[in-house]
Amino acid sequence: MQKLICGLFGVAVFFSTQVQAEAPLVQAVVDKQRVIKHWTKERRQQAIPRDLYLDKQGNGYIRGANGKMLAYGQAAESPRRGKPADDSQPPVISNPSPSNGAALSGASQNFSVQVTDNVGVQAVTIEFEAPAGSGSYTTFSANNTSGDTWSVSLNFNVSGDYNWRAIARDTAKKGGNSATSPWWGVNVDINGSGGGGNPGGGEGDLVTNSPWPDGGPIQTAAGRLFYEMPTSKNKRRWAGYVCSGTVIDDLLTGRTVIVTAAHCVYDDANKAFARNVLFIPNQAQTSGNGTDSNCDNDPLGCWVASFGVVESNWTSRTFPNNIPWDYAYYVVYDENHQGPGTSDIEAATGVFQLNFNAPQVGASGADSADVSYTRGMGYSYSDDPNFMYCAENMTEFDSANWWLGNCGLSGGSSGGPWIQPNVSALEVMSVNSWGYSDGSPGMAGPKLSGTTAQCLFDVAVATATTDTSDGNAGVVVSPSDCP
């Protein structure tokens, strides 16, 4: 594992460290008062949501201060590199989503496969027989949306049975080797129930974007994150952003771990950890007029974060090529508290647990009795200071992401928790990650199960630093250091 500490003078030092669960916890010192004073009323008002978006072709965007979508990172990279290679092995196509026989609800659907090849994949197309058995075929170019995943999003005009398959070509000489998958059948119901879905609740329990009505530990443990990231690679100017995060029980005293999205911790385009990181739990209950510069009118006060923990696949790549690793953590010490009440953050807020087991996946719809019924939550800046949520049955977008297809949470909710199905369990199983750039509904959340998310959490728990930075510090974890 590499550990990166960025000090007050911008000097970066890498050194190797072994992660041990029993590692001594030395207080991480940050200049709390300087960070608190940094967030003046003007700076807080100038902070904007740091939300990432994809268009239907797989290109990445971020919304600028003027509200316009700005190109971010790059289009999903093609693995093709250099001269064509000598190779006779075709690509391998696997993990179709949706699977054969799936019942799909709604007109908008995403189709994806994983494609691997030892010399690189040049192109993937998705072919449809519409309707099934008609002998009428239509082909669409797929986009490399993340890792080995290639996908295409389509809008159906007619309900019925459809067949689909993938065709892949590699970068080998003489035009490359090609592979064709078997046909997979799906049933599409553009009006709702999806044929094989749970008919019990239909859309009756759908919530697209509403204030959380029940308060309680869910609201107190979740909060708004203020932080800065550089505006360019030279890191001379920094801009303020907002995200959401949730307090997680780390079984230690004097500190806690906050789970959020990786894009709220590390700037993958300009290659820097966030600085001046401030966490405000339960800001929905502020006695002030929305977000201001006064921690004393927030019911629990504010805490300054000490350092972040992210995966090396997030830091070494750029969105959207790092989508599967959009999960991260901040470490916060009790003594870095400002405002009313106790400085013991876990006692003040209550805590969530992280659920690294595979969650429940259902058919599209919104039935609160369905085990896949999921609530996505966060502090949308347009609804300041309200704590907002969406709720519906959770589906699988692709091999990297879960999907809430009607979620309308807006900017600032990134990093907020996903919980299912029983809110009293207080378990986070994903976080708000990205939506579509054209304004169509939907929110993706990274998979914590079967990934390095638990390893990163263990690193956050075990790591301590005496660095005196202002929060511009962090730990980059390599998958090779994970069990």
TrEMBL record:
Signal peptide limits: 1-21
Composition-biased stretches (Polar residues): 91-105
Transcription in keyword set: no
GO BP terms, alphabetized: proteolysis
Residue stretches in coiled coil: none
Protein name per Swiss-Prot or TrEMBL: Uncharacterized protein
Keyword Signal: yes
Classification via PROSITE patterns: TRYPSIN_HIS
Region Disordered, annotated ranges: 74-105
Keywords: Signal
Entry's Gene Ontology molecular function annotations: serine-type endopeptidase activity
InterPro entries in the record: Glutamyl_endopeptidase (IPR050966), Ig-like_fold (IPR013783), Peptidase_S1_PA (IPR009003), Peptidase_S1_PA_chymotrypsin (IPR043504), TRYPSIN_HIS (IPR018114)
Gene3D superfamilies (alphabetical): Immunoglobulins, Trypsin-like serine proteases
